[in-house]
Amino acid sequence: MAHRVLLYTIDGSTEIARDYLAQRGLLDTLLLTGIAHEPLTSPRADEIVGYEAILGELMPVLKDEVDIIANAGTRLVASLSIGLNHVDVKGLAKRGVLVSNCPGYCAEDVALHTMALTLDLMRQTTFSNRTVLAGTWNPHLGYEMRRPQGQIMGLVFFGNIARRVVPLARALGMRVLVWAPTKSADELAAVGCKKAATLAELLGASDVVSLHCPLLPETRGLIGADELALMKPTAFLVNTSRGPVVDEAALIDALDAGAIRAAALDVLANEREPDTRLTGHPHCLVTPHAAYVSREANSALIRLGLDAVIELLIEGREPTNLVRA
């Protein structure tokens, strides 16, 4: 029996998926359809009728979208992501729809993006380009630049991505400080890091504060006015985790007041309608939630999503990466 699967992705391509299914001998068993869409949009009801599984990239499933997917008879939403704050897992579970994710697929890519943003801030690459585009040619505009050697990279939490950041930062001569309540000092020392006893200690000591925490009730608004006030006025804030981890209003105030030097954000609290006070701020650079993007990561992402589909629809078992409500 053939099963219909929808790839609801930014480019709508099924090439990688078809190649993978061909390798598995399942090309005639899972019938693929690709639909391209704008980021952070969801399929219409008429687009998903008859599909038992949906692989969704930057596809919110919240409120009315839960009913649309459940009413279509979909059995699995394979979210092409690690975090799931854009998916109502509990709401789908109540309607009998399973959800899977793709842990670890882009750790190297996000770590590279973290360091790219860090170096961009240190060298003012984007900021100085803005002045050139505005008609000014002056290499000494902006804040004083420093080499990374000897500076402290402060990592908030220590999962797969943060672990990948460590050798990159150390290769630049940076020292790495970590605040991760579940990690011991010995465990961190074994990979070349020093443990901060508290978040306040890390914020006060770091030249770069890089956020790598999931979005949980206890991490929402983790970096607010009080935390920003603890940072050095020469420090940078980098966020490649989740937008709501940072209180954006407090960050704008801190940037306006010069309480910190600059910020680089790959994620925002509301990515459907970004706050132009941040996207246009002279001391803030924003990338469009792009840290996960690479050809290699995309291939891994599609494979992991299809693995969940194969496990459920063909093998008749729970997906390995099932997310429980």
What does this structure look like?
With 325 residues, the chain is an alpha/beta fold. It folds into two domains: 3-105 and 293-314, NAD(P)-binding Rossmann-like Domain (Rossmann fold); 107-286, NAD(P)-binding Rossmann-like Domain (Rossmann fold, 3-Layer(aba) Sandwich), CATH 3.40.50.720. Helices cover 36% and strands 16% of the residues. The strands form two sheets. A seven-stranded parallel beta sheet has the order 8-7-6-9-10-11-12, with helices on both faces. It has a five-stranded parallel beta sheet with strand order 2-1-3-4-5. Helix 1 (15-24) packs across helix 13 (295-314) and helix 5 packs across helix 7. It is elongated. 41% of the residues are buried.
Concise structural overview:
With 325 residues, this protein is α/β, with parallel strands linked by helices.
CATH homologous superfamily identity of the largest domain:
NAD(P)-binding Rossmann-like Domain
Strand element count: 12
pLDDT < 50 runs, ≥5 residues: none
Report the total helices: 13
Assign the CATH topology of the largest domain. Rossmann fold
Percent helix among the residues?
A: 25-40%
Q: What is the element layout, followed by pairings?
A:
Blueprint: E1 3-9, H1 15-24, E2 30-36, H2 45-48, E3 53-56, H3 64-71, E4 76-79, H4 89-94, E5 98-100, H5 107-123, H6 125-133, E6 152-156, H7 160-171, E7 175-179, H8 185-189, E8 193-195, H9 199-205, E9 208-211, H10 225-230, E10 236-239, H11 248-257, E11 262-265, H12 276-279, E12 284-286, H13 295-314
Parallel strand pairs: 1-2, 1-3, 3-4, 4-5, 6-7, 6-9, 7-8, 9-10, 10-11, 11-12
